[in-house]
Design brief:
This protein has 14 helices and 14 strands. It has 2 domains: 46-245 and 385-510, Rossmann fold; 250-337, no CATH class. Helix content is 37%, strand content 16%.
Length: 513
């Protein structure tokens, strides 16, 4: 025992070690905080920048107010949960806002900000490209968007939590937002809050989602009805995915091969890899391929190894005719052509790959022997300029200033959880069916590009045919097709058609009595 008043040497050593290590622990903790998904405390103060501008649409001058800012989502106790960034455009000179539709729009991912629907499809500015959608050299250039729908509807572009400038609150687990239902609930809460703050409950309300954004849209239609009593007038579903079994290529899931086949055929037609069918009208050709896909091809796939050799040879020959691939290659795939194989195989002899988001685009890998492409040439093409020009536009034109990095593609899918779907394919078709049967006025417009391998166009009519809607509600659904890919609006002719289709849809749905 040490004498009174004297320190224990072991105790002194421990204290000295702690004195040395505690700053290191604190620095490590700070680094973890810096790399986390949370926002700095200052960002949870709602920020707003309001500007005014105008654009000429169809010969008329449209004056509008643009608001770039954040709304803070709180829980029932009033505690901040997340800061959500948005850009809203509201037409000026409207005496009665209840007569003016408002459309909430976002992209997909999960993990994508709303930059593409904002700066490509609907907003008053668009990224300049050539008529087929090929970008000009970086950094690109913004121009007025003659196909904006701001003459028809006010617009609110939403960056879900974790994307754009939207962040979880400090101390809040980001995972609560990175799930099928958590994402729907947080976006739904933003829509409720924005509608309340801006006194737009009496306005006709629409949602326009792209890609995974259509999964979110179907869930939101039902969620908003049940949680907030908000009944929508319409959904615009851009490049949709409702039942993921129809598109996910996995061993044992034959449905996806059926829905992909017509896009393979359209792609082979575009790149002139067909024989006698090359001179046919594309739509006429696809009608034949679709009938084969849900007929003889589906019947052959379901038989598995029961399929006879003669039938196997016959089906393989038809697949070769429609896809531009060799019969030998198709037989070696067991009649099941994966999309990641197709994009590499179609133009292999030319040492080229084709795109996934848009199969009209081609690229080059290090070699042509691999099974998968190194990158998606269409994804690279549609990425040029968008984030660069948005960053400049938000600060220079809209006056919104922040030093946060803008997350255009946060790849949140790596941390995404699927709630009740953890042991099955995600399927929000039932959400959409329930929303439509409980709200018979709800209208839905699907828009699909023939050259889209991310969400193949044939899955749209296939999914609609399996919704289980009563016959009297089936006319509430319309499907429009385009000769482009996932983002059909990058092609000028399709963007003009897209604007007409969406504008007519919103007008009709908003005026229903």
């Amino acid at each position: 025992m040490p004498r009174s008043g004297m320190a224990n040497p072991l105790f002194v050593s421990i204290v000295l070690v702690l004195i040395v290590l505690c700053p290191l622990f604190a620095a490590h903790s700070a680094r973890q905080q810096d790399n986390s998904e949370t926002a700095p405390a200052a960002e949870l103060e709602e920020t707003t920048s309001i500007t005014h501008d105008s654009i000429e649409l169809k010969g008329q001058r449209v004056e509008f107010e643009a608001t770039a800012g954040t709304l803070v989502l709180t829980n029932e106790a009033g505690e901040p949960q997340a800061s959500v960034f948005y850009v809203a455009y509201e037409r000026q000179g409207i005496e009665d806002p209840s007569e003016r539709p408002v459309t909430f729009s976002f992209n997909g991912g999960p993990g994508s900000a709303a930059v593409w629907v904002h700066m490509g499809a609907f907003g008053p500015k668009k990224v300049l490209a050539d008529p087929e959608g090929m970008p000009i050299p970086p950094p690109g250039r913004l121009v007025d968007n003659p196909y904006s729908i701001l003459d028809i509807s006010d617009l609110v572009f939403i960056d879900p939590v974790g994307t754009g400038y939207s962040r979880p609150a400090p101390g809040v687990d980001a995972k609560k937002f990175y799930s099928l239902r958590g994402d729907i609930e947080s976006v739904g809460e933003f829509i409720r809050l924005w509608t309340t703050r801006n006194e737009r409950w009496a306005s006709p309300k629409f949602i326009a989602g792209e890609s995974y954004g259509t999964t979110r849209s179907a869930g939101l239609a039902l969620h908003l009805q049940q949680r907030h009593g908000m009944y929508l007038n319409g959904l615009v579903m851009i490049s949709s995915i409702l039942n993921w079994q129809n598109q996910e290529i996995h061993p044992g899931n034959d449905t996806a091969y059926i829905t992909h086949l017509p896009t393979y055929a359209a792609t082979a037609w575009f790149h002139q890899r067909l024989g006698a069918d090359q001179s046919r009208d594309l739509r006429d050709f696809l009608d034949e391929v679709e009938a084969f896909a849900i007929g003889d091809y589906a019947a052959a796939l379901i038989q598995g190894d029961w399929l006879g050799e003669n039938e196997r040879a016959s089906i393989g020959s038809r697949l070769a005719r429609y896809t531009g691939l060799s019969t030998d290659y198709i037989q070696r795939t067991n009649l099941r052509i994966a999309n990641w194989r197709f994009v590499k195989e179609l133009l292999r002899a030319e040492r080229k790959t084709v795109g996934r988001l848009d199969t009209r685009f081609t690229g080059f890998d290090r070699d042509s022997a691999g099974e998968r492409f190194e990158y998606d040439p269409s994804s690279e093409a549609v990425g040029v300029g968008y984030v660069t020009l948005l960053n400049d536009y938000l600060r220079r034109d809209l006056g919104y200033e922040t030093d946060l990095p803008f997350r255009a593609s946060a790849r949140l899918w790596r941390d995404w959880t699927w709630d009740e779907n953890s042991n099955r394919y995600v399927n929000v078709s039932e959400d959409l069916r329930q929303a439509m049967t409980r709200n018979p006025a709800l209208q839905v417009l699907f828009t699909s590009g023939y050259y889209d391998l991310a969400t193949p166009y044939f899955d749209t009519p296939f999914s609609v045919a399996h919704l289980g809607l009563p016959e009297e509600l089936r006319s509430n659904i319309a499907i429009a097709y385009y000769e482009a890919g996932h983002m059909m609006y990058i092609r000028e002719a399709d963007h003009a058609k897209f604007k007409r289709d969406v504008a007519e849809f919103i007008r009709a749905a908003a005026s229903r009595k």
